[in-house]
Each structure stands twice: as C-alpha cells, then as structure tokens.
Design goal:
Blueprint (H helix, E strand, L loop, with lengths): L1 E4 L2 E4 L3 H6 L7 H5 L3 H14 L3 H4 L1 H14 L5 E5 L11 E5 L3 H12 L5 H9 L7 E2 L2
Parallel strand pairs: 1-3
Antiparallel strand pairs: 1-2, 3-4, 4-5
C-alpha cells in the first residue's frame, strides 16, 4: 500500500502485518482502541515538534501512515502543516484525502527517480482532491 505524507510517498506493504510485526512502539491492544480523534491529536503533537518528520523520522512517520490507513479507512494521503508562529499542536492543520492508486504510484515512481517535487505533489494531489478533501483542523 502506498501512502502520501506531505511530500514523501511511503510504501507500507500490508498495513495489518506492519502494525503487528512488533516494531511499532505501541502495543497492538492500544492501537486497536485508538480513535481517529486521538490519532489526530498525536499527529498534531508530532508535527508541532518536528514539521519535517517525514524526512527526519522516516520510520515513525511510516507507522503514523499505517495507523491512519488502519483507523481511517480510505485515507491514503495527509497534508500536515505547522504554520509559522504556531503556539501549540492545536495550530497544526491536517488534511486527509483518498488519492487514486495510479496517482500515488506515479508519485512513488517519481520519488524513486529523485525527481518528485512539492509542486508536482500539489498539482497531482492537493489541487485535484478538493471535493474529496477532509480537514481535521
């Protein structure tokens, strides 16, 4: 499974297996009861601390992607932004989307060839999914 987190496409494989393989720093019993609201809160806290976490904390971000796809079926992309001057996690904006797999595959291929740009992601994803966009802010 592919998942877009800001400007990075993650290949998650089988989400259920990833979450249960013992490498996620959260017991299975805990993520089974994790609500989308609590997951949103955790994401905001993580982005507030490190707005560039998709690059600086790759594995942690990958687990967040798996949790989002598991607890919010249909979501396979997120735009998480900490605005300049943010005073706390509540100021972090989150947008979830369901992006066609063909688009994600194209972006993943571009990323693997090291030619993926933020402009291309905005053009291919965020400017096209406004009708299906869900804001968590």
């Amino acid at each position: 499974m592919l998942f877009l987190f800001n400007d990075v496409v993650f290949e998650l494989g089988d989400v259920s297996s990833l979450l249960r393989d013992g490498s996620i720093p959260l017991p299975v019993s805990q993520f089974e009861t994790l609500t989308p609201a609590h997951l949103t809160e955790l994401l905001r806290e993580a982005i507030y601390v490190d707005p560039n976490m998709a690059h600086t904390k790759f594995e942690r971000t990958r687990y967040f992607c798996a949790l989002i796809s598991y607890r919010a079926p249909g979501a396979n992309a997120i735009l998480a932004v900490r605005p300049q001057g943010a005073e706390g996690p509540d100021d972090v904006g989150l947008r979830f989307a369901n992006v066609p797999i063909t688009t994600l595959a194209y972006l993943w291929r571009q990323q693997n060839h090291e030619v993926l740009t933020v402009d291309e992601i905005n053009h291919e994803v965020w400017s096209r999914v406004t009708e299906n966009l869900h804001s968590a802010h």
